[in-house]
Amino acid sequence: MSQHFQFLNLPRAMPKEVPVAVRVSNYAEIYGEFDAAESKAQASRCIDCGNPYCEWKCPVHNYIPNWLKLVQDGRLFEAAELAHETNPLPEICGRVCPQDRLCEGDCTINEGFGAVTIGAIEKYIVDEAFKQGWRPDLSRVKATDKRVAIIGAGPAGLSAADRLARAGIKAIVYDRYEEIGGLLTFGIPPFKLEKEVIKTRRAVLEAMGVEFRLRTEVGRDIEFQALLDQHDAVFVALGTYKFVDGALPGLHLPGVHYALPYLIANARRVMGNQASPIIDLNGQRVAVLGGGDTGMDCNRTAVRQGARKVSCVYRRDEEAMPGSRREVKNARDEGVEFLFNRQPLAILGDRRVEAIRIVETRLGAADAKGRRVPQNVPGSEQDLRIDAVILAFGFRPNPPAWLNAANVELEASGLVKVNGRMRGFQTANPKVFAGGDMVRGADLVVTAVHDGREAAAAIADFLGVAV
Ligand code: FAD
Ligand code: SF4
Q1: Is 182:155 a contact under the CB 8 Å cutoff?
Q2: For position 383, what pLDDT does the model report?
Q3: 386 C-alpha to center of ligand 1: Å?
Q4: What span, in angstroms and rounded, lies between the C-alpha atoms of 398 and 239?
Q5: Ligand 1 center to 420 CA (angstroms)
Q6: For 233-266, what is each residue's pLDDT tens digit?
Q7: Is 87 in the pocket of ligand 2 (CB under 6 A)?
Q8: Confidence at residue 166, expressed as pLDDT on a 0 to 100 scale
Q9: What's residue 3's pLDDT?
Q10: For ligand 1, mutation pick of 175, 183, 321 (most atoms within 8 Å of CB)
Q11: Is this prediction's pTM over 0.90?
């Protein structure tokens, strides 16, 4: 049979999953790795349809059919090279992108046959190429005398650092944390993204000439003005860190936790920092409020801590959940109970959390964004007995005052305003560029990677450096 019809014979497959009973007892990634033969076989399911919707839907517009072909031909290093042309962090996106609503969701054979396993192959290409000794080739890069400060070592900052290094521009990345990665390290749990992956990427970036100055909070340990004075341009990618609390009564009670401090504390322990304080939910009945990726990560972390029961409360139906379908399935497989169409009304307790009051909802008319608004059903209130609550409602911008002081303009919401000049990443202060969650609002790793890549190109233009 012609190679174009491989998908008729060969079903879609994911790398082997660790069985539930094993994976909930540790924090290792739950998916294994394809080997060369499996990658080749799965890549051969691509029909090279000529109008690759996958490529358009991928926010960094990866050359997906082209690197799938290179994998089929066994040309691994060329595939790694090509993957990096569009994506500075392909092994990370291959692991954490919600492929079901991005590249794989738009694969031509998705309907009826199952999409090509794009994310897992992207991860295979780079993991395996790194193992075999491939590294980005900067031998033809001409060093310039330009220096750029990047504030924030999250995906936006790392992506910009990669592109600046490839343009011969010295990138110095400042971050308040002890390790690079931003939410890749201190947010997304290791069962989705093992921290060794980020350590490998750090070594690759350092070998490219990127310098990291960690445990350095701009505005506290160093002034923003000093960075402006010492560099030719600055890229700010601070993320969004103001927690939404839903203004629920009872928020003050012991047993109420916010998603990010909960996940960060756990991540530090898993990374071996035994002195770091932890929120331990072992033996407790836990309600996680929120239906996004953060909520799923809290659900599955609580399961691994040995929570007696984990219930995820979400005010809309399953269809409307913002989280990746794959992560909802994983949480369900691991024993999480989903309470859809339930609105939390209050956290109840005398001296600590004892219950949460919830009410049923029905979805009403759509709002301006096209999302149907949940309406409470009178008389359907119910108290759920629990010991702990995790609030995973999302994040809002928290721009530091020093940005305004440097004439960087903000939207009313607190997001950083960028203009149409310089590819849309320059702020009102021409020397300051911005991207990632602090410009878009809380979004995705791959969109932050896109912004870092494009902002670096804009900075190179601004500095008159050819890329
Ligand atoms: P961040 O990753 O937030 O990085 C910002 C960095 O700036 C941080 O390291 C911070 O320490 C640093 N910083 C801030 N202020 C200062 C300062 N003054 N001085 C020095 N450093 C500073 N997306 C996905 O695509 N897939 C997922 O599965 C997924 N899961 C998620 C799970 C959780 C729990 C959360 C919270 C988010 C998740 N996301 C996921 C979203 C994704 O992680 C973010 O959209 C992405 O990390 C944003 O990148 P960023 O570089 O803009 O910001
Ligand atoms: Fe798919 Fe994300 Fe990779 Fe793009 S970066 S091909 S959306 S997994």
Answers
A1: yes
A2: 98
A3: 30
A4: 8
A5: 24
A6: 999 999 999 999 889 999 999 999 999 999 999 9
A7: yes
A8: 98
A9: 61
A10: 183
A11: yes
- Residue pair 467/446 in contact (Cβ under 8 Å)? The answer is no
**What pLDDT was estimated at residue 436?**
98
β-pairing, 242-243 vs 395-396, is antiparallel
Distance, in Å, from the CA atom of 317 to the CA atom of 304, rounded to the nearest integer, reads 26
Domains delineated in the chain: 3-131 (1.10.1060.10), 147-240+397-463 (3.50.50.60), 246-393 (3.50.50.60)
Q: Phi first, then psi: what are they for 55, rounded to 5°?
A: -65, -40
Contact 151, 176 (CB under 8 A): no
Q: Is the CB of 263 under 6 A from ligand 1?
A: yes
Ligand that comes closest to the CA of residue 224: 1
1 band by pLDDT with thresholds 50, 70 and 90? very low
Determine the residue of 293, 398, 418 to mutate for testing ligand 1's pocket, defined as the one with the most ligand atoms within 8 A of the Cβ atom.
293
Going by CA atoms, what residue is nearest to atom 5 of ligand 2?
A: 93
* Cα distances (angstroms) measured from residue 3 to each of 7, 42, 43: 9, 12, 11
The answer on pLDDT for 74 being more than 50 is: yes
Q: Which atom of ligand 1 is nearest to the CA of 400?
A: 18
- Kindly identify the ligand whose nearest atom is closest to the C-alpha of 65: 2
Please name which of 221, 144, 196, 145 lies closest in space to residue 400, comparing C-alpha atoms: 221
Structure tokens at 355: 């219950």
Its sign, for the CA torsion 187, 33, 336, 106, is positive
What is the radius of gyration, based on Cα positions, of the chain? Answer: 23
Nearest ligand, CA of residue 61? 2
Amino acid in the structure at residue 143: A
Residues in the chain: 467
Pairing state between β 147-151 and 170-174: parallel
